[in-house]
């Protein structure tokens, strides 16, 4: 059942959620029913392994690719076990050589093991599958690795010895003809090996490559992202936000129930001689966080701002009370735009209209004071995303001090690494005393961690 386990591994790499219990059910089902009927095996594995309609196409594609290889190898194995083909061919070759020598002639014979197999026209499917397994072909990740694995499989089959045989100077016309035949057979074998590697790549690596890319983007600096990565990153942001929202919703439901109210529980069950048929719980009030987010959209910071706002507005179920502001020099409230339009198109409009301009934190904070300072209270969390680079201007830290004193807490998220703070025109140390927390915010993992903590302690 090793190949069933490998197939389940390929499905998991493709994104199908398969639990250990479901894997065991699939293996037990195949042990009972066998693989003689391909249609039955396909249906049974689908029933045990595929839970979502959206995964059906991936399952069918991988099943056809994977079990085509298994059947080819099995047929080759059966031929080897059920018929003495290899032995008969070797014996026939030996007899031909003896007959030729008795008649005074000569017959060329391949000296390498692989050459003998090719000369006898053996089916190499099983040998290829075994060599691929020995080389751990299922670990293939990138398209560029295909030639490497094909070369390694050919080596394991005996390609080096065959190459040496083909380079040797022939000592007879028969030997020259044999070398020509073996060279053609080797070319066909290499093509067969490449086809096999191609199939294994489609089974195991294509989705690994996507996963590898996703893992890389989650930790990549958002300020360095190429525009071609935006679509994938947006999906990753929304996926992470949904996961976090689900976790927090469950936690909030648990907290709402509170602690057991012993007095009310006893009173509610007085009619049942003290048997606890009904429980009463102390109500726990859980307030959703009230957030104001301010994003610097100048220069490279605008890329981080895009994904911070996308993450925040993907948490609408658990953080519905959000006011959003963006600035380069002028402070602009964009709450209505983000709420009324599709989030992605709204972000695009924001970045096109206000992104990339020169920065003036002093002017921006003055605008924020006029528009929102009176709305901040002890239930408000204020989040500012910015690099604190103010082009040598007045940073108006007096306004930021008011924000800090009026709010529940203030978080400053800086897209630069810590050793860059207070270098050049950065005035991070002027704002830091008036922040509850100052943290780097450079990638998706940082954003996810920041909002996880906000939700946990709200």
List the helices and strands and how they pair.
Blueprint: H1 2-13, H2 20-33, H3 38-49, H4 56-82, H5 85-102, H6 113-119, H7 125-134, H8 146-157, H9 159-167, H10 173-219, H11 230-257, H12 262-268, E1 290-296, H13 301-313, E2 321-327, E3 331-333, H14 335-340, H15 343-354, H16 361-372, E4 380-385, H17 397-406, E5 409-414, H18 428-431, E6 437-440, H19 444-456
Parallel strand pairs: 1-2, 1-4, 4-5, 5-6
Antiparallel strand pairs: 2-3
What does this structure look like?
Helix 16 (361-372) packs parallel to helix 17. The chain has a six-stranded mixed β-sheet with strand order 3-2-1-4-5-6, with helices on both faces. The model is unreliable at 73-87 and 100-106 (pLDDT under 50). It is of the alpha/beta class and 458 residues long. The protein is flat, with a radius of gyration of 34 Å. Strand 4 (380-385), helix 17 and strand 5 (409-414) form a beta-alpha-beta unit. It has two domains: 2-217, no CATH class; 287-456, Rossmann fold, CATH 3.40.50. The protein is 60% helix and 7% strand.
**What series of H and E elements makes up the topology?**
HHHHHHHHHHHHEHEEHHHEHEHEH
Strands, total number: 6
Q: Give the overall silhouette.
A: flat
Bin the helical content: 55-70%
The Rg value, from CA coordinates, equals: 34 Å
Number of helices: 19
Q: Which regions contain 5 or more consecutive residues with pLDDT less than 50?
A: 73-87, 100-106
Please state roughly what percent of the residues sit in beta strands, choosing from under 5%, 5-15%, 15-25%, 25-35%, 35-45% or over 45%.
Answer: 5-15%
Class inferred from helices and paired strands: alpha/beta
Strand order of the largest sheet: 3-2-1-4-5-6
How would you state the average pLDDT, rounded?
80
How many angstroms separate the termini?
A: 50 Å
Count of the domains: 2
For the sheet with most strands, the description reads: 6 strands, mixed
């Amino acid at each position: 059942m090793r190949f069933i386990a490998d197939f389940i591994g390929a499905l998991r790499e493709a994104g199908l959620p398969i639990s250990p219990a479901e894997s065991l059910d699939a293996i037990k089902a195949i042990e009972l029913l066998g693989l003689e009927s391909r249609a039955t095996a396909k249906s049974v594995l689908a029933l045990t392994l595929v839970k979502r309609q959206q995964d059906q196409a991936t399952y069918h594609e991988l099943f056809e690719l994977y079990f085509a290889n298994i059947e080819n190898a099995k047929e080759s194995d059966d031929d080897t076990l059920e018929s003495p083909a290899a032995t008969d061919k070797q014996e026939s070759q030996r007899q031909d050589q003896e007959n030729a020598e008795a008649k005074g002639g000569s017959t060329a014979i391949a000296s390498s093991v692989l050459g003998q197999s090719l000369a006898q026209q053996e089916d190499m499917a099983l040998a290829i599958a075994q060599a691929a397994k020995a080389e751990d072909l299922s670990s293939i990740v990138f398209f560029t690795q295909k030639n490497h694995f094909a070369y390694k499989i050919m080596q394991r089959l005996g390609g080096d010895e065959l190459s040496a045989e083909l380079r040797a100077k022939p000592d007879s016309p028969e030997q020259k003809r044999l070398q020509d035949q073996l060279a053609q057979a080797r070319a066909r074998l290499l093509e067969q090996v490449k086809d096999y590697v191609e199939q294994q790549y489609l089974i195991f690596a294509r989705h690994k490559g996507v996963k590898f890319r996703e893992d890389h983007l989650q930790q990549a600096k958002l300020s360095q992202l190429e525009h071609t990565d935006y679509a994938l990153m947006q999906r990753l942001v929304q996926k992470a936000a949904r996961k976090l929202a689900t976790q927090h919703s469950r936690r909030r439901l648990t907290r709402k129930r509170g602690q057991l109210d012993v007095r009310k529980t006893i009173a509610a069950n007085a009619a049942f001689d003290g048997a606890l048929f009904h429980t009463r719980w102390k109500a726990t009030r859980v307030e959703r966080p009230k957030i104001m987010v301010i994003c610097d959209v100048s220069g490279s910071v605008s890329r981080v701002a895009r994904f911070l706002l996308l993450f925040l507005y993907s948490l609408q179920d658990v953080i519905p009370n959000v006011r959003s502001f963006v600035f380069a020099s002028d402070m602009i409230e964009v709450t209505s735009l983000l709420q009324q339009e599709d989030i992605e198109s709204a972000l695009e409009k924001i970045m096109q209209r206000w992104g990339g301009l020169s920065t003036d934190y002093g002017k921006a904070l003055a605008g924020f004071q006029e528009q929102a300072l009176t709305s901040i209270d002890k239930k408000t969390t204020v989040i500012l995303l910015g690099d604190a680079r103010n082009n040598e201007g007045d940073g108006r830290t007096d306004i930021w001090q008011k924000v800090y004193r009026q709010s529940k807490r203030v978080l400053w998220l800086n897209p630069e690494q810590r050793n860059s703070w207070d270098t050049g025109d950065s005035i991070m140390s002027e704002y830091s005393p008036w922040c509850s927390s100052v943290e780097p915010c450079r990638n998706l993992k940082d954003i996810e961690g920041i909002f996880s903590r906000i939700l946990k302690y709200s």
